[in-house]
Amino acid sequence: MAKSQDVEIPDAGLIPRPRNFAYLTGVFKPRTGVSISVDPAFAAEAIWALSVLESAFTVRFTLKATGKGTIHVAQVPGLGAEGYRLTIKPAGVRAEASEPAGAFYALQTLRALALIYGDRAPACQIEDEPRFPWRGYMLDTVRNFFEPSFIKRFIDLAALHKLNRFHWHLTDDQGWRMPVRSHPELADTAARKIDRRYLPHVERTLVYSEATITEVVAYAAERHVLVIPEIEMPGHVTALLSAHPEFSCVGGEFEPEDRFGIFPDVLCAGSDKAFDFIGDVLSETTRLFPGPFIHFGGDEVPIERWAACPRCQARIDAEGLPDATALRGWFTRRVTAMLMERNRRAVGWDEVVEGAVPSEVVVMAWRSAERGAAAARAGHDVVMCPSTKACYLDHKHLDSAEEPGHLGVSTVRDSYSFEPLAGFDVAIAPHVLGIQGNLWTELMYFGRQVEYMAFPRLSALSETGWTPEGRKTFEGFSKRLPYWGRALDRLDVARYRGPLG
Ligand code: ACM
Ligand code: ZN
């Protein structure tokens, strides 16, 4: 039997909180040899589940190819792409889902219960499905580089929280970390980095290999996480310019940046060769990343070089544009068209809305939630990730001199309290695809530090992405968090443990 204090855990400690949860009597405590089976559509999920359930329950299971095992997932119609039903009784587990993602989340919930409770799961009945289709996180692997093993570990942790989008920030002023077959000079020059994590400092070439990217994309797909690569343009390109100074307006010499901020040198909008290069890079990006979305950045683009550049001025004249500000929109529209030719959906930061880009472009609202509402009113689908006390996980958890983080404070309560549809009227609300937590890593040198900054704020955001608004209270979340912490402890997750705000 479950200990009485365990039975009283609210919603069994699950984060994100399920849509419907009810305890039944007793516990499920499998012995070695107990069988798992699934209907044929869920074969891949069963293979994934076997290993994670074995470590969560600390027993060996067997996969049963025919007939129904002690743990069985059946395919039934009507539960949506990601929904599931799960019934846990002392004698066994029955789950139902319509699609593989739903089966995955049923098994993920069973795993989470075993992580929370030790090696057993309380008998209970759950009916669940997400509120939003886009539940994401962004990881900046430019400002600091993270080994593929950590990239995968973080995908696992995200999937445990039922997040399903990994926005992979691959290029910026400080480096270019995606391999491009037709442009090996990028790895030679733009991926160089002085590694300051160890003494003596060493210069390393930090670029992901094609094999790594393919492996990460497949690893994520097995966990129902879609990878969205971000290739920044026309700003945040200093590293690129170190390999191709001719794509700047003024030429000269560039080095991958050591500093952080916004730099005046951007891609020259008058250079046709720069667009040929962008075409090569986008073709390579579509080859490496099969998913439907490609993020092209578009944030923080100074126009001072364009305003003084003869080639940019010639472009302004040829295109009949009023000024260099309008060139931003022209640039963005051209890149969007290049992505559409490659059958991909463009994603950009909220600045791109000012350039009157086609409404097909997905907008990430980062400067404010209001920017998201404005984008939705202009017909864009939006992902809400405002930096204003909500989704920027590089901010401090707490206003304290000792606390790591910078550029602001966002407590766990702030992150939890962010309501993505606040200020959206019903007509534009359907444009909100969901939410995302962003991990800019200027001050995160090691994966453990990323975990500390992410958790539990990303846990809070996962609940906002998944759980209906009416089922969410900060009090309820705070009560479940210590139990959810047991699951994170079992996985050795570094996390913030101070006041929640
Ligand atoms: C951003 O934080 N510059 C998107
Ligand atoms: Zn120029």
Please provide a written account of the structure.
The model has no long low-confidence stretch (mean pLDDT 96). The protein has two domains: 125 residues, Chitobiase/beta-hexosaminidase domain 2-like (Chitobiase, domain 2); 340 residues, Alpha-Beta Barrel (TIM Barrel), CATH 3.20.20.80. The protein starts with a helix and ends in an 11-residue tail after the last helix. Helix 12 links the parallel strand 17 and strand 18. It has an eight-stranded parallel β-barrel, surrounded by six helices. It has a seven-stranded mixed beta sheet with strand order 1-7-5-6-4-2-3, with helices on one face. The chain contains 16 helices and 19 strands. The protein is of the alpha/beta class. The site of zinc ion (ZN) has 8 residues, from helix 10. The site of acetamide (ACM) has 4 residues, from loops.
